[in-house]
Amino acid sequence: MSREQKEKLPDQPSPVLLAVAGSDPSGGAGIQADLKTACSLGVYGAAAITCLTVQNTLGVEDVHCLDADLVARQVTAVLEDLPVSHIKTGMIGTDAIARRLGDILADFTGEVIIDPVLRASSGRDLFAGATLEPYLDHFLTAATIITPNRLELERLTATPCTDPNAVLTACRSLFGRCPRLRAIVVTGGHFNEDRLEVEDLLLVRQDGSDPPIKVCRRRHPRIRTRATHGTGCTFASALAACHLLTGDDEKAFDAAVRYMDTLLGGSPAMGSGNGPLFHHRFQ
Ligand code: PLP
Predict the structure, then answer these.
(1) Which of 58, 202, 238, 248 is the most buried (most CB within 10 A)?
(2) Burial letters for 48-63: b for 16+ Cβ neighbours within 10 Å, e otherwise?
(3) What is the arithmetic mean of pLDDT over 207-220?
(4) Is the pTM here over 0.85, yes or no?
(5) Ligand 1 center from residue 63 Cα (angstroms)
(6) What is the whole-number distance in angstroms between the Cα of residue 234 and the centre of ligand 1?
(7) Angstrom distance (rounded) from CA 236 to CA 250
(8) What is the pLDDT at residue 8?
(9) How far is the CA of 121 from the centre of ligand 1 (A)?
């Protein structure tokens, strides 16, 4: 959204985006990335924390998940008071948190954008459940939009996603499993990593139409950079914020893809590992 568009917004309370995610003290991923993204796109962000992590650009050193009841009370406190239209979730941490949040989300009538954070790109598991079944059955089923990358799509569906047909099959199985799910965005950064282009996909369910799933593809040049920490969190938050502003899946998808390209191209490498994005420089 341009500065001119932001300035034209009426001077009245706007809907709120509530992020529910883990904390990254280095500010690149997790709830910190969610809030920076919302703020830079002109959306009010609220934040409920699921887990504390000890990490920097080099990786995740430790994880401490909060008691599920405490997480649920944070979310309820915000929902009871603020006009939340969109909830975006990231790292959920444990089965117990997934179940408690799933109950709350099932009663929420707004948009639920789930970024299925299961593992950090540095390799550390960010979800401690012995199996994914409780996460899939009690939490993911509340989603209206899911934003997996290839590896997450493979884990959620137990389907190897090496070609476009396999991706479509995996997404069909998610649509079948999640009754409220309207759209899946599969980010393309982890596909064909040697290629110069990235293709992101938006799949929208259109029951009763032919085809039953509409597929929108966006190809854009691959930006080679070390500043990749928190890209998944940032993309999902941008999609949620842009959906809040436009109310349209395709417009939100386009805007989030452009936002990521701008950030990836405009973030100098910082720290010794995978550096964070410079959300504060986004105009
Ligand atoms: N830490 C937290 C708290 C997160 O929510 C995420 C999100 O995916 C990550 C780490 C992973 O970040 P990345 O894999 O981009 O380094």
Answers:
(1) 238
(2) bbbbbbebbbeebeeb
(3) 90
(4) yes
(5) 11
(6) 10
(7) 14
(8) 56
(9) 7
What pLDDT is stored for residue 46 in this prediction? 98
Ligand 1 centroid, distance to 51 Cα (angstroms) = 11
Question: What are the structure tokens assigned to 4, written together?
Answer: 């001119």
47 CB neighbour count, 10 Å cutoff: 18
So what's the pLDDT on residue 16? 98
What's the token pair of residue 87? Answer: 């909830």
* Number of the ligand 1 atom closest to the C-alpha atom of 24: 3
Which tokens belong to 195?
A: 């290629």
Q: How many angstroms separate the CA atoms of 96 and 50, rounded?
A: 11
Q: Is 262 exposed, middle or buried (0-12, 13-18, 19+ CB in 10 A)?
A: middle
Paired tokens of 70 = 């405490």
Confidence at residue 69, expressed as pLDDT on a 0 to 100 scale: 98
Quick one: angle between helices 231-246 and 249-265, nearest 10?
140
- Which residue has its alpha carbon closest to ligand 1 atom 4? 30
CA gap 106, 91 in Å, rounded: 18
Q: Which atom of ligand 1 is nearest to the CA of 115?
A: 8
24-78 pLDDT, tens per residue? 999 999 999 999 999 999 999 999 999 999 999 999 999 999 999 999 999 999 9
What is the Cα gyration radius of the chain? 18
CA of 224 to the centre of ligand 1 (A): 19
- pLDDT tens-place string over residues 216-272: 999 988 999 998 899 999 999 999 999 999 999 999 999 999 999 999 998 999 999
